[in-house]
Amino acid sequence: MAKKQKVELTPEEKAAKKLRHSNGWVRFWAIVVALALTAGVYGLASKTAGKETASTGTAASSGSSTGSSSSSSGSSSGSSSSSSSGSSASASSSSSASASTGDSSSGAAASTGVDAAAAAEAINAATAKAVAAGYHWTRTAEYTQPVDVGNVTSALNKIIQGIDSNSDLNSVVGGFIGIGDKEMDITKGGSAAEQIDYHGENYALQATSLQAGDLKNLKVDGNTYTFEVENANSPQQDKSTAMSRLTNDILTQDQVSTEIKNYVSAASVNSATIEYTNIKATVVIEDGNLKEFKYSYDGNVTDLNIKVIVSVNGKGAMHVEGAYTNFVY
User: How many Å is the Cα radius of gyration of the chain?
Assistant: First the structure.
């Protein structure tokens, strides 16, 4: 039997094959490193999901995550106080007031007269009504700590720059997690999640489900509410933490794992420590209608271990700001 002759590729075919191979790895590594930066949002479900502690204002997390997508629910410390008022909570206070930073489980800061339960109810009702409205959406995100995957960083940059000399690990990963400025008008009555490109389900306005105990350092000035929510470790989009009750701007392990396995099925996340801090929000309500909703947070990954044949450790950090304005009801 004649030996099968090896088919020689033309120089053009070889170049195309090399480019396809490189592009696949660029996309894969972009997603891998994005795990370390999604602070998300963006979070990963580690073995112990973030647990909120109301008395200290800190989130506790321990242990490490396995390669499977284990979703652990953090427990909220604040209990929602019932309120019969369906109107704006600003009526309960005629001047700016700062909520107590101590135990807020009662739902109100007696020392200032600010009714946290009424404020949470007003915000939840206004955002629920605004979900079907048209609005202007903006989101900005910037690195506060460049992408770093240890001694692999240089090698990845060489691969990326071999395809595009103007790109690097930061820019490739940044495209995945939303680094940069985004802005668009959302059509009234349409699906905001479908209108927003890439992770629209994360960025579209959601109906908040805030509890009285979630509103830390609450201040009410007329129709404007400003507050902070508890720090969080690896929160999920399940409303089990104050952060997820405020926004869906969180990238979960399930989302990222699915994308990773599209390229390399053997990839696994061995451990992750992701911290969300300085989570702040400003909400403006007029006659029960949401007029403005802004939020911001810092995301920091101090340890992430991903194994794809060999283990890769990554870290990074970013600052995110989102806003919904110009509502059309």
Answer: 23
Amino acid at the residue 148: D
Measure CA of the first residue to CA of the last residue in the chain; give whole Å.
Answer: 77
| Cβ count within 10 A of residue 16 | 12
Q: Which residue has the tokens 């700001």?
A: 321
DSSP code of residue 242: H
Each residue's pLDDT tens digit, 201-252: 999 999 999 999 999 999 999 999 999 999 998 888 899 999 999 999 987 6
Extended strands (E) in the chain: 51-53, 58-60, 134-148, 180-186, 216-221, 224-228, 232-233, 268-286, 289-308, 310-328
Q: Is 207 helix (H, G, I), strand (E, B) or coil?
A: coil
**Contact present, 115 and 83 (Cβ < 8 Å):** yes
Selection from 308, 85, 82 nearest residue 212 by Cα: 82
In degrees and rounded to multiples of 5, residue 114 shows phi and psi of -80, 125
218 SS3 class: strand
The tokens for 274 are 């992701």
- The structure tokens 């979900």 sit at 131
Among 1, 45, 54, 98, which residue's Cα sits nearest to residue 233?
45
User: Which residue from 92, 181, 80, 128 is spatially nearest to 293, judged by alpha carbons?
Assistant: 128
Query: Which pair of structure tokens corresponds to residue 287?
Result: 């006659």
User: Is pLDDT above 80 for 117?
Assistant: yes
Q: With a threshold of 0.90, does the pTM exceed it?
A: no
The encoded tokens of residue 72 equal 């652990």
